[in-house]
Amino acid sequence: MSRQKTIVLTGASGVVGQSIVRELGGRPVLCLVNSGTVAGPGVEMLRVDLARPRLGLDDDGYADLVARTGAIIHSGGLTDWGQSAERYQRTNVDGTREVIELARRADAAIYHQSTSFVHALADSAPLPLRETNVVTAYVRSKLAAEELLRASGVPYVIFRPTNLIGDAATGLTSRGQIVQLMSDWICRGRAKVFPAHPGNLVDIVPQDTLSRATIAAMDAGDHGREYWVTYGKEAMTVDEAVEICVAHAARRGRTVTPPRVVHPDELTPAELDALPPMSRRYVEVLADVSEVTACAGGALPSSLDELRSRYGLPHVSDRDAYRRSLEYWSEQGA
């Protein structure tokens, strides 16, 4: 292996990682993966275990990685909701600690992917986030990873994206995530209720917006910045999001009755029990996500204007990007 300095990308086989590889456009990148694969122009892949000392590499392999590391984009981690705190600790917290050690040895900066959901744990949150919320353990691990970075002395930039959709122009995504799954449920007419706190906005962001911001900050050599990659007060209302789903269903030849929007606290056990198992699970997850947004006062903080002015990110309509994401997901046979 050459010892030329290069970009190191963790979590390269994930949704964010693959989007970053596409946006790098063939620039050399050393992709660290635990499972899965990633390929493309300029891509080199290395198997690692983020949570193990020296990323699970032997002495020579680790020394070579240190010598080659020029900057680290850290998108590796456990993002599935509803897992145990121990699993999140191992991957999201201990893994970040190992990435920090790599950056320290390589004298490199870290461009870290966190989550906008950490705002639900802020001291200023108008509501406390329930310990039983499906995202609580995940969010606590991401907040702990941020705290490690801030205390490390290693140069860093933190990005806090909201839920991701596909590419703004094409809708492309390497795999469906929570937004696509929930949207498909609505578009197929299976959603009878949509739990949402009054005033909540539906904040989703195209994955290429996050990737471009990350690469731009890295190329600028910026440090010590923290960005909320969200639409904030520009985000869609719940009614707008539902209308987009209903219109998408109509284009696909389905007539869908819009789900009834209800406050999560108004959902009774009897009403939940009457739902099919999958629909009940989706309603419960939506209720938990609604609580997270309510903890942010209904609208997440946003750095979108700053990202546009500082890095030249284009103005992208989240409504249009959502429509393209739905079209792409449908065309994949979902």
Secondary-structure blueprint:
Blueprint: E1 6-10, H1 15-24, E2 29-33, E3 43-47, H2 59-68, E4 69-74, H3 85-106, E5 109-113, H4 136-152, E6 156-161, E7 163-165, H5 178-187, E8 193-195, E9 201-202, E10 204-206, H6 207-220, E11 225-229, E12 236-237, H7 238-251, E13 260-262, H8 269-273, H9 277-295, H10 304-311, H11 318-331
Parallel strand pairs: 1-2, 1-4, 2-3, 4-5, 5-6, 6-11, 7-10, 8-13
Antiparallel strand pairs: 9-12
Helix pairs in contact: 1-6, 2-3, 3-4, 5-7, 7-11
Summarize the structure in words.
The chain is of the alpha/beta class. Helix content is 43%, strand content 16%. It has 11 helices and 13 strands. The strands form 4 sheets. The chain has a 7-stranded parallel beta sheet, with helices on both faces. Helix 1 crosses helix 6 (207-220), helix 2 (59-68) packs across helix 3 (85-106) and helix 3 (85-106) packs parallel to helix 4. The longest helix is centred in the N-terminal third of the chain and has 22 residues, at 85-106.
Short description:
This protein has 334 residues and is of the alpha/beta class.
Placed side by side, the strands forming the largest sheet appear as 3-2-1-4-5-6-11
Return the structural class.
Answer: alpha/beta
Strand content: 15-25%
Specify Rg, calculated over alpha carbons: 20 Å
Describe this protein with a few key phrases.
334 residues; alpha/beta; 13 strands; 11 helices; seven-stranded parallel sheet; globular; two-stranded parallel sheet
